[in-house]
Amino acid sequence: METSDLRIALFSGNYNYVRDGANQALNRLVGYLLRQGAAVRIYSPVVENPDFPPTGDVVPIPALPFPGRGEYRAPLMIPPRAKRDLAAFAPNLIHVASPEILGHRAVSYGRKHNLPVVASVHTRFETYPRYYGLAFMEPVVEAALRRFYRRCDAIVAPSESMAQLLRDQRMSYDVGIWTRGVDKEIFTPARRDLAWRASLGIAADDVVITFVGRLVMEKGLDVFSDAIDLLAKRNVRHKVLVIGDGPARDWFEKRLPDAVFVGFQGGADLGRAVASSDILFNPSVTETFGNVTLEAKATGIPVVAAIATGSQSLVTNGVSGRLVTPGAIGDFAEALRYYCEHPDARRAAGKAGEAETVRFGWDAVNQQLVDTYVRLVRQRRAGGKGPARSRVP
């Protein structure tokens, strides 16, 4: 079987209406599949003014605004019209990108029609409740995720650290890797722009500590702010740059009144903004990979990150940056202080990080997932069966 024989039905709760690292990876994957001659059909909610145009053909799925997060949509079902489209498309594999109602329905469709199902894991949903005062719900969410992923033939994680966590959580017996790539034409030290910095009131000799990402509390905005406060109390000279937007922006701006907020940046503008920074500070523990960490490394700046899935596979502690116990404000501040006050160490870590990104080409990482697709379709055609129903908690 060849890649060109694949017919992939991709189900995503957010394919392009709100930009994030997960759906940008999915769009790159679809582009790669189409270039290899595969057929792809995407089933996802749509909005009138999405953040970016979709790659491939999208079949609209009905959805309602997500409670408390109206920018997102909660897909409800696979309606009859979409089921007819599925039947006409005749996929030989189902790919589900999120474990919500639509994902469950897609898995059920695959099992009913004897199609292999692959689930890609993009975020640690089980950690979200702790950011909203509901930490006691984490075991419940984890159990629900286990039930979902065990109904799939295989799951893929974007980093080895995340794959190992999924194994430890007994999410699946077939856990593979679909990592992420970086565009070296966009993310490169050559995009560093001191004139752009100056336009923001940042001097050439200022050390810029940068946050990159969607501004939501689960990205660790509280930890970031507390560490910056402690840095200021220790009289460490620095500037804070925030790249991104989101519902928590007002909170973050009030919490860090001296920071420079530049809003969402994309493409070459994002590459310039990151390369014009000096340190990336990523305290989040919710990512399964951490695209921003890889992109920062590609631009030649060190990363201070939480010891968490994704970052553990990307940052070599003491070489390309520092890994710190999640929530350890004092340790984060100390790591930031070190790089602020030791420019030679900052440059050495940035150079080492850039060298570590050489192996992250998009075509190579997408081929990893294509190989999984082909293996599962071959197995099913050879008489293999889907996953047995499991009652393991």
From TrEMBL:
CDD domains for this protein: GT4-like (cd03814)
UniProt keyword Magnesium present: no
UniProt entry tagged with the keyword Transferase: yes
Gene3D superfamilies in the record: Glycogen Phosphorylase B
GO molecular function list: glycosyltransferase activity
Keywords from the UniProt entry: Transferase
InterPro entries referenced in this protein's UniProt entry, alphabetically: Glyco_trans_4-like_N, Glycosyltransferase_grp1
Ranges where the Glycosyltransferase subfamily 4-like N-terminal domain occurs: 20-185
Name of protein: Glycosyl transferase family 1
Species, as recorded: Sphingomonas sanxanigenens DSM 19645 = NX02
